[in-house]
Amino acid sequence: IADEPISALDVSIQAQVINIFKDLQEKFNLTYFFISHDLSVVELISDRVGVMYLGNLVEIGDKKNIYENPAHPYTKALLSAIPVAEANKKRERIVLKGDIPSPINRPTGCPFNTRCSEVFEKCRLEMPSLKNCSTDDSQHLVACHLKK
């Protein structure tokens, strides 16, 4: 388990540590539980990605599905915030509005309902369960009432 292992490191040192992680992963066929807020690093190091909001898993799937076809509104917002390196490419930024809920006084229903632009009544009442939204065998799971 690696919890924010490179967050306090200089960028050049971060790259070295990521390379060590990748080399060890390849050499010893290791699995890491890599926790990070830096989604660019998560994309580099991960095969599968889980997205959490307020302590709840809201989406999980292989890296390609998560980064190319995010299903949860929170995942979409997170990915829209990743800086684009190419000057001629722009990404439409999704700015979250609404109140950030307290982890101590959590909202009923979906934990993201106070900030979701697609919220409807069921979201405020019922906690969504993880459902497969994949069109292939990859098990792309999302906890959202919008996904049937």
Helices and strands, in order, run as EHEHEEHHHEE
Structural class: alpha+beta
The poorly predicted ranges are: none
Output the radius of gyration.
Answer: 17 Å
Task: Give the total of beta strands.
Answer: 6
What amount of the residues lies in strands?
A: 5-15%
Q: Estimate percent helicity.
A: 25-40%
Q: What's the helix count? A: 5
Q: What is the CA–CA distance across the termini?
A: 33 Å
- Provide the number of structural domains: 2
Shape: globular
Return the average pLDDT rounded to an integer: 91
Q: Mind summarizing the main beta sheet?
A: 4 strands, antiparallel
With strands numbered from the N-terminus, the spatial order across the biggest sheet is 3-4-6-5
Outline the structure in words.
By secondary structure, the protein is α+β, with helices and mostly antiparallel strands. It folds into 2 domains: 1-46, no CATH class; 51-148, no CATH class. Helices cover 30% and strands 14% of the residues. A 4-stranded antiparallel beta sheet has the order 3-4-6-5. The chain has a two-stranded parallel ribbon with strand order 1-2. The longest helix is centred in the first third of the chain and has 18 residues, at 11-28. It starts with a strand and ends in a 6-residue tail after the last strand. The model has no long low-confidence stretch (mean pLDDT 91).
Quick take:
The chain is of the alpha+beta class and 148 residues long. 30% of the residues lie in helices and 14% in strands.
